[in-house]
Amino acid sequence: MISKQILADLRLFHGLYNFIIASLFFYQGWLGLTIRRQRKTGKPSRITTAKRHRKLGPVIAILSVMGLFTGIILILIDKGNILEYPLHLSVGVTLVLFILVSYRISKKIRGRDSPYRNPHFIVGISILSLYLLQLFLGLGVLL
Question: 93, 8 in Cβ contact below 8 A?
């Protein structure tokens, strides 16, 4: 059996980890918005920004899925009931689904005028909104 102090520390680590992942998603969104603005204004795009956006996206997508599963494992160990915090769980699952959809859409983007750019943008904004909600709900769980 894991002590209550270790569980409290793990809960805090889970929150900090996911705060960092959320921050990385906001950075990712800023990169994407920068690329979008450059494309819309006709300015030559900076290859390094686009490369960073394409390389970082899959990494933080995997890290966010790991955050969901560590949260699920942690709540099962601590409370024994996955539905102890149903709203936090449902937003987390929705968030991961949106991230997977965004990743899938991004793989279809080809060329400057790809019809998949706007859906990717809309799903990205949804992800950032869900992360804000999830962070707020997570604070409620911790406090």
Answer: no
The residues spanned by each domain of the chain are: 4-142
3-state DSSP of 23-86: HHHHHHHHHHHHHHHHHHHCCCCCHHHHHHHHHHHHHHHHHHHHHHHHHHHHHHHHCCCCCCCH
Q: pLDDT digits over 11-40, tens only?
A: 999 999 999 999 999 999 999 999 888 888
Instruction: Say which range, 24-33, 42-51, 108-117, has the weakest mean pLDDT.
Output: 42-51
Angular region, 21: left φ>0, alpha ψ -120 to 50, beta rest: alpha
